[in-house]
Amino acid sequence: MSAAASTPDIAQQVQTTVEAVLRRGLVGLEYISLDDPQVGATPRDTIHARGPMKLYHYHAQTDEVYRIPLLVITSLVSKPYILDLTPGQSMMEFLVRQGYDVYLIDWGLPREEDRGLRLEDYALSFIPDCVERVLADSGESDLNLLGYCVGGSLTLMYAGTHDSPVRNIACLTTPVDFQQMGLFSQWTDQRYFDVDRIVDTLGNVPGEIMLSAFDMLRPTGRLTSPIQVLDRIRDDRYVKSFMLVDRWAADQIPFAGEAFRQMIKELYWKNALLEGTLELDGRRVDLSAIRVPMIHAMAQHDHIVPHAAARPMLERVGSEEKEEVILRGGHASLVAGGNAMYRLWPKLDQWLSVRSI
After folding, report:
1. SS3 for 129?
2. Is residue 122 a contact partner of residue 129, using CB atoms and an 8 Å limit?
3. What 3-state class would DSSP assign to 132?
4. In the beta sheet, which residues pair with residue 171?
5. Which residues contact 62 (CB under 8 A, 6 or more apart)?
6. What is the mean pLDDT of each run of 10 residues along the chain (357 residues)?
7. Burial of 42 (0-12, 13-18, 19+ CB in 10 A)
8. What does the pLDDT read at residue 307?
9. pTM of the model
10. Rounded Cα gap, residues 161 and 259, in angstroms
């Protein structure tokens, strides 16, 4: 086709794209309102609260429900609605529709009085408390755990210090080797990073600092995101998912001060979780003591938890039955949106279904 013949087609494509942008309202503006009811919409009840933490129980959506309940342990550094993004693109919705009895720990926003919370409080107090409440609420004697990101690290800390009623563990993009955390490892270099001054001055580490750290991993991300959306501006489902994930990534929360101090000194500087030297309230976190079946799903293009940081987990645990899965996608798209719908969720269902009866 000649250049002259193609010009009207190009002009029409440009016009159609511009009109689509205008109709959507500045590229998906309707998807990022501050009080958006679309996120975290899967029906649930709060069955326990302790400080900022809440324990949710999602409503069953099938006539028959798997016997063994599933407790989801979320990350400390971001809000949990990435796992319940929006109807039709929600892992929580998918799981309950597959017949799982799902519970989730939402750590909430640390308050000023929570600045003293330590890793011990999360792994040795909050999680065991929630485990007991899930068992009491479900009437069962055992449960499965699913940990996302740092929530997976907390899961390992709990399982590596307890003779627990856990039957199976699934981890998603969970860091274990913190010296392989890419730019995070360099920025927190002990020679230059004064974590004591930060925590002693600020208490809880503000969400703005956490957001800046994530943004610096990909400095051009905020500039290129609109271009990515424009490339698929007519795909309403894609745009909606993209904008909600982008909103979640910017919706960072404070990090409890003492837990942040511990994470830097014990995990980044000493690599204590990997080396087996991490102690919480006098208990050593022994990954080799974890012997239940495990699966670890990682993202091929994860710039937040690189494969090198996550991969050693299954090498360290004592489980005989364990499976490593590497899927296309990034840190968020592993668990949310179209990529997750067709890759992670079916795999997770396949693995959990035979271990939940």
Report:
1. helix
2. no
3. helix
4. 147, 296
5. 96, 97, 98, 99
6. 51 53 46 59 96 97 97 94 92 98 97 96 97 98 97 97 94 96 89 94 89 65 58 65 77 92 97 97 96 96 93 96 95 90 96 97
7. buried
8. 93
9. 0.85
10. 18
Whole-number Å distance between alpha carbons of 105 and 69: 13
Which is nearest to 148 in space by CA: 91, 215, 66?
Answer: 91
- How distant, in Å, are the alpha carbons of 44, 53, 198, 281, 300 from that of 117? 27, 12, 16, 13, 33
Residues 6+ away with beta carbon under 8 Å from 357? 66, 67, 68
State both tokens at 178. Answer: 């913190």
∠ CA 325-334-185, rounded to 5°: 85
Residue 25 has a CB neighbour count (10 Å cut-off) of 10
Please give the pLDDT value at position 211.
73
| Rounded CA separation 60/72 (Å) | 15
Q: What is the pLDDT of residue 323?
A: 97
CATH of the domain at 331: 3.40.50.1820
Q: Are 27 and 240 in contact (CB under 8 A)?
A: no
The residue range of the domain holding 138 is 3-353
What angle is formed at CA 153 by the lines to CA 286 and CA 332, rounded to 5 degrees? Answer: 155
Give the CA distances from residue 230 to residues 27, 233, 250, 339, in Å, rounded to whole numbers and listed in that order.
Answer: 8, 5, 20, 19
Measured CA distances, 101 to 56, 70, 234, 319, 356 (Å)? 11, 6, 37, 24, 9
Domain count, the chain: 1
- Measured between alpha carbons, how far is 102 from 82 in angstroms, rounded to an integer? 16
SS3 246: helix
